[in-house]
Amino acid sequence: MSKYGDVAIGATRIAQTGVCPVEAWKTAVEKEFKANTASIQKGCPKNAFLGLAESGFVVGVPKGSYTKSVLNKQYALEAVRLLNEKPEMQNDIKKLWVQSCGSESKVHNSQMDVVVSMWSRGLLE
Q: Computed from CA positions of residues 88, 115, 118, 41, in that sequence, does the dihedral angle turn out positive or negative?
């Protein structure tokens, strides 16, 4: 699992205690990456997580308004739909990404790590 998968799991655990998902992500990503500003600020995995939370997909976290991202949220939601139909796709993140975004030329930027990590641990509804 990638470090962003670990961050998503940590952020979920924090958000499940009642902390806003935006703050939960910030806390978890800073813990994982310490002073690596670029990794802490990376938007794609963060917005995939926040998009899932915003839509009410994260177990124990209320729906809300957490991100302005449209595409990363869309990719994450589509990935969950695909995983629910074909659980074996968790073993092929590249294929999951291509089917989630609809393009073989777009580069995966840890969004699927977030989704697969959470999905495989039962943290997504």
A: positive
Output the six-digit token pair for 81: 């739909």
Encoded tokens for 109: 């930027």
What is the distance between the alpha carbons of residues 117 and 7, in angstroms, rounded to a whole number? 10
Do residues 85 and 53 touch, judged by C-beta distance below 8 A? no
Name the β-bridge partners of 58: 124
Q: What is the sign, positive or negative, of the torsion defined by CA atoms of 116, 121, 122, 125?
A: negative
97, 108 Cβ separation under 8 angstroms: yes
Chain segment 29-87, per-residue pLDDT in tens: 999 999 899 999 999 999 999 999 999 999 999 999 999 999 999 999 999 999 999 99
Question: Residue 90 has which token pair?
Answer: 């968790």
DSSP string, 103-114: -SSSPP-SHHHH
pLDDT at 1 over 80: no
**Greatest distance between any 2 Cα atoms in the chain:** 39
What per-residue string of b and e applies to 80-95 under the rule 16 or more CB within 10 Å gives b? Answer: bebbeeeeebbeebee
Structure pTM? 0.96
